[in-house]
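#lab-general

N.A. 3:47 PM
ok so I finally got the sequence cleaned up, no stray characters, all 194 residues accounted for. can someone with queue access submit it? mine expired

B.Y. 3:52 PM
send it over

N.A. 3:53 PM
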Amino acid sequence: MKRKMRNKEGQPSTNNFDIYLRGMWKIILKNKIAGCTFIYTLWFKNYMSNTCNSRTDALRWISNEKVFEKRYVFIPMCEGGHWNLLILCNLDKTVDSKTRPCLLLLDSLQSTISDKHKAGLQTFVKNIYKEDGRVGAEAVVKYPFGIPKVPQQTDGSKCGQYVLYYIYKFLMCCPQNYNWEEDYPGFVSGLQII
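B.Y. 4:20 PM
back already:
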């Protein structure tokens, strides 16, 4: 039986998005992905569920990825049938270093982003800190949080493809360590409408 790779709207299913991402990850040069990782989409989906066990499991799985040793952590998210991308930068740095931690949210339908959504993502990152036993979880709300202007989709069915494109282009263009003052928004100038 052939596996269904897309949902009825033409988007990659949550289960299969990870297959596409893993395939892309394998073809990118090793020096580009060194110090980077991605979080499986189902982990974020479990975190967002309203059950305590799912949320706890998701945070434990994310913590096991050793995200605080990474330069960049890519978190593809599918909420309400729409894909967007959260990039955690410099979690291996301190808040007072030149390349301090920051968050980037890339969305091909930027009109869907609200302050409530931003606060929810900051809480998610705070909970990752807490799960890992790290100090400084409360400082997450002070991290720069960028929502750069990125190419926008013109239909309702390509947001998953845009997220894969954003990941690829970021990896190809990103600096060794992301400096908010010098590099934001940086890589988006290399993005083109797909």
